[in-house]
Write a structure and sequence with these properties.
By secondary structure, the chain is α/β, with parallel strands linked by helices. The protein has twelve helices and twelve strands.
């Protein structure tokens, strides 16, 4: 059963700079009296995860730049869909926003027949907080040490080997299917409900390969218990410079599929409010301390200037082709 996990984070408005200094800075981003009351950020995942981390960074940014009290509310269920549904059903007044991910803002509508909203029609994009590349990793049982060996092994015995992801229709699942499509290989997909069981099976040898987040993989890589083969972003991940981008391999040339975290509101969100939120987000993401927080959480900070609407359209189209390729069903 979907349930509500209340995780409330009230951010101090004034901060260390003092009331007078802050009151001079806030109006640069606030317009038309907005915000006049607390802003709620809905997050579709449990506290402590990567989406929640990005949401709390965004909450701190909006609190500081807009002079607002910002409340983070974790509403779990259906890979972020429950929170997104609540967001799109909220008044378009800027006081209930979605701090979401590429799952519920682009991917799940393609595989979840129960989803009652269309992200491209029912959300007002504000801006990208960060991107979240994932890692293709190998378990110790495979003996695979690099992408050449991975592709050769999979081609030698089509269907014999498996890979795990965080669930059908998740960004990790799409990333795995794109590897299969580009490399011309076949692996059996094993969906998991959590990273803990996935990594346990990978280390234990009952799962051969997996797509995982860099933060989830880090302790196992450092301990030599799993082998990183490639990162899904166009460029190498800053904290793992020794791991190639998947697109560097000749069989995967041009490969790129990263998750992302973003801020959005219900459709018909007034343009002046969107502009205020976007300006605040951009200013916050220019802060080196904010960027370090996101990097330490396993993400690549955005600038806030990215065209989120275009990204949502392009990723939805990319995911749609992979749904057809993999015949995905929840």
């Amino acid at each position: 059963m979907d349930h509500l996990l209340p995780s409330v984070s009230r951010r101090a408005v004034l901060g260390a700079l003092g009331a007078a200094a802050f009151s001079l800075a806030a109006p640069a981003f606030a317009q038309g009296g907005y915000p006049a009351k607390p802003i709620k950020l809905l997050v579709g995942y449990a506290p402590g995860g990567s989406v929640d981390m990005a949401a709390r960074v965004a909450a701190d940014i909006l609190s500081t730049k807009l002079g607002a009290t910002v409340v983070v509310e974790n509403v779990t269920g259906a890979a972020g869909v429950v929170a997104a549904q609540r967001a799109v059903s909220s008044p378009a007044d800027g006081y209930t926003l979605l701090a979401g991910s590429s799952n519920e803002m682009a991917a799940t509508v393609l595989v979840n027949p129960a989803q009652r909203y269309d992200p491209l029609k029912d959300l007002a994009p504000v801006g990208v907080i960060a991107t979240a590349p994932v890692l293709l990793v190998a378990g110790p049982k495979t003996g695979v040490k690099n992408l050449d060996e991975f592709i050769a092994l999979a081609r030698r015995d089509p269907g014999k080997y498996s890979y795990g992801s965080s669930g059908v229709g998740s960004t990790l699942h799409f990333a795995g299917e794109l590897v299969k499509q580009r490399a011309g290989i076949f692996l059996t997909h094993i969906p998991y409900r959590g990273t803990a069981s996935l990594t346990s099976d990978l280390v234990g040898g009952s799962l051969d390969f997996a797509l995982v987040s860099p933060t989830a993989a880090a302790p196992f890589i450092q301990g030599g218990r799993i082998v990183p083969l490639g990162v899904s972003s166009a460029k190498r991940f800053p904290t793992l410079p020794q791991v190639p981008a998947l697109g560097e391999h000749p069989q995967l040339k041009g490969y790129e599929l990263s998750g992302w975290f973003a801020l959005a509101g219900p459709k018909d969100l007034p343009a002046p409010i969107v502009q205020s939120l976007r300006a605040a987000l951009q200013a916050g993401l220019a802060d080196p301390a904010i960027r370090r927080r996101l990097e330490e959480g396993g993400s690549i900070p955005a600038t806030g200037k990215e065209d989120l609407a275009r990204i949502m359209r392009e990723d939805t189209a990319k995911y749609a082709s992979l749904v057809k390729f993999a015949n995905m069903r929840e």
